[in-house]
Amino acid sequence: MNKTDSNNPAFRLDRRGFLIASAGSVALLATGGLSRSAQAAALHVLPPLPYAENALEPVISANTIGFHYGKHHKGYVDNLNKLVAGTEYADLTLEKIITATAGRADKAAIFNNAAQIWNHTFYWNSLKPKGGGEPPAALKQKIEASFGSVDACKKELAAAAVSQFGSGWAWLVLDGDRLKVIKTANADTPLTTGMKPLLAIDVWEHAYYLDYQNRRADYVNAVLDRLLNWEFASTNAG
């Protein structure tokens, strides 16, 4: 079972969102009945997907999910466990590892793998079969207050995702009392900025290249229109 920091307000809403989105099965955040010491001693493990590998077809194929989740996401978990074994980070929660190593060139490998575990789990929960459509009323009101309309928000998300140079992420975040769209490069995450992530779109090539080749915009627009999990975002927004 993976580790979480439920005492840190910066992560509290994200934890609740993960639990609701995956019925308590996301191992990153579901701590069950373990004591704090038992949680700290546990190795990081690959969280289960919140749906079957073929559940996002035809937008994202089972083949892509198999490689993306089973090879890339798992690889970050395996790498992190090797990197932190016997170090000061061995008993830290995933989020504490991220915040403790952010911006430290000598700890870049640890940060990158920890952040990619977190980012990917958040991304899987940002998607759902038969997603898209209209956000829940409370979130829609927040979106309209910040962007003018849901369509304007989606266009800004698409622009951020498509324009991200190289590998990275597009995020819908809550910054204070306003929603905004940001993009991060490589493994970077909003968790180090004080902003609350609500949704994520992965634009690393391994997220889409088997299905879309170099047509990143087609992948992004299909995700926005057909897979986006607005309920997850609404839960995270509070």
From TrEMBL:
Mn(2+) binds at H68, H120, D202, H206. SUPFAM superfamilies: Fe,Mn superoxide dismutase (SOD), C-terminal domain (SSF54719), Fe,Mn superoxide dismutase (SOD), N-terminal domain (SSF46609). Residues 44-127 form the Manganese/iron superoxide dismutase N-terminal domain. Its EC number is 1.15.1.1. The keyword Hydrolase does not apply. The keyword Oxidoreductase applies. Belongs to the iron/manganese superoxide dismutase family. Destroys radicals which are normally produced within the cells and which are toxic to biological systems. This is Superoxide dismutase. It comes from Candidatus Methylospira mobilis.
